[in-house]
Amino acid sequence: xxxxxxxxxxxxxxxxxxxxxxxxxxxxxxxxxxxxxxxxxxxxxxxxxxxxxxxxxxxxxxxxxxxxxxxxxxxxxxxxxxxxxxxxxxxxxxxxxxxxxxxxxxxxxxxxxxxxxxxxxxxxxxxxxxxxxxxxxxxxxx
Length: 142
Description:
The protein is of the alpha+beta class. Helices cover 20% and strands 30% of the residues. It is built from two helices and six strands, in the order βαββαβββ. A hairpin with a 3-residue loop joins strand 4 and strand 5. It is globular, with a radius of gyration of 16 Å.
């Protein structure tokens, strides 16, 4: 059996009051996402699934939000690989919060979240703590 899975969410950076520093962090994040492979490479994570906001368009400093979404064939069977690749990308970004929603046709909906305790980039050795909530919707009662 293979069902369709939808993965979507966001990565949010800390709010930094120094405008130039905030812009530098946002530009760094855009470069990291731009270095990911194209969708045609058939990678689980690719640059085409990400969209990063541009804080320079704002008058006041605002935190950057990176949105992402993709559809897969039963990605839940490769979920540990997907999470490992996602966490590797997080370790290269400036971020404070990351939220991932997985809607799997045969396995329900799940919400995964990460919280960074560092304003700076993480080291590759640092472990990330993930929280998972299974969001179960009941169907109609017959």
